[in-house]
Amino acid sequence: MSNVEEDEVHPNTQAVAAALARAGAAGQVHELEASTRTAAAAAAAALGCPVGAIANSPVFLADDQPVLVLTSGAHRVDTAHLAAQLAARAVRRASPEQVRAATGPPVGGVAPVGRCAP
User: Fold this and answer.
1) Contact status, residue 73 vs residue 44, Cβ threshold 8 Å
2) In a domain, 108, yes or no
3) Can you give the CATH number for the domain in which 23 is found?
4) Which ranges in 1-118 belong to alpha helices (H)?
């Protein structure tokens, strides 16, 4: 975990913290080491919490439209179920380039709040 001054925090982290504060959420945003970015188990270990307490926000393409899905770190997205819920013909995981184009941050840095696009 990083204990850095606010002016040293990544702008994406600042945007997430600001969005949470505007929504009235209590708590503190922690910036973790890069090695935890794509592994819920590593993030949970760094924070000392269960894997299920980690929120994953993977991006999928539903009929080629980006969709951000929120799930716990202990679960995987059932793309067939997601397609049915969205009435989509096809759902697939977005590539790293598609994630960045849709959200701004790279894979592992996509937060469930503070997005500039839905």
Assistant:
1) yes
2) no
3) 3.90.960.10
4) 11-22, 40-47, 79-86, 96-103
60 close to 92: Cβ distance less than 8 angstroms: yes
Range of the domain at 72: 6-103
Total domains, the chain: 1
Helix (H) or strand (E) holding 59: strand 59-62
pTM: 0.77
State the sign of the Cα–Cα–Cα–Cα dihedral 6, 103, 99, 113.
positive
Do 20 and 27 contact (CB within 8 A), yes or no?
yes
Q: Which of 73, 69, 71, 70 is nearest to 41 (CA)?
A: 73
Q: What is the pLDDT of residues 63-91, one digit of tens each?
A: 999 999 999 989 999 999 999 999 999 99
